[in-house]
Amino acid sequence: MQKAAPKPIIIETERLQLSELTPAIYDYLFTTCSDNREIMEYLGLKTTAELAEEKDKYSKGLSTYYQSLKNFRLLRKSDGKMIGRCGFHTWIVSHRRAEVGYALLDDKYKQQGYMKEALGPILAYGFEEMDLRRIEAYIADYNIPSAKLLQHFGFQREGVAREHYVVDGVNEDSTLLSLIRPEYDQLKSSWNLKYKVVK
């Protein structure tokens, strides 16, 4: 008998439906779905190389006793199209901290406010539902749009992680920013968030 698909948590905003993507959902996709095109569409992958990379990450283990992940697919309400991802890819449960990451799948979705609309509810979910105390973000110093987005939500610059991230085979420095729970509690009313969580 085929196992049932895990039911994802959904966060709804004005224009988006944020659909949870967890290790259990990856497990279902890679052990139950035989159609690679279906998997690629679900995960927003464009090439078979990207699919091979996701399968490799899955085979090596997406979570351990020490850390896990909780991402969300960004689905546009108007047409159901997946336009990006946003969530926590390094969630250290025992220390109540996680690293946030986000990306739009195509440049045509940029400068429309989608990521700002998604990130606020994701941060709120992290602090209020996942019981996080600290959320970290690492960005390249030349990624000005990302820096502005994080600054909008009150992230504070902490320093530089040297040769932290590999881009096109080259180790680049990353700027480390963070938001902690007391800051979130102080700032959240000014964000004017409009969303609902559907479990």
TrEMBL record:
**Identification of the protein by name:** GNAT family N-acetyltransferase
Positions of transmembrane segments? none
Origin, by domain of life? Bacteria
Start and end residues of each N-acetyltransferase domain: 16-182
The family database entries (SUPFAM superfamilies) matched by this protein are listed as:
Acyl-CoA N-acyltransferases (Nat)
Q: Which UniProt keywords apply?
A: Acyltransferase, Transferase
Instruction: State which Enzyme Commission number(s) the record gives.
Output: 2.3.-.-
Q: Name one GO molecular function term.
A: acyltransferase activity
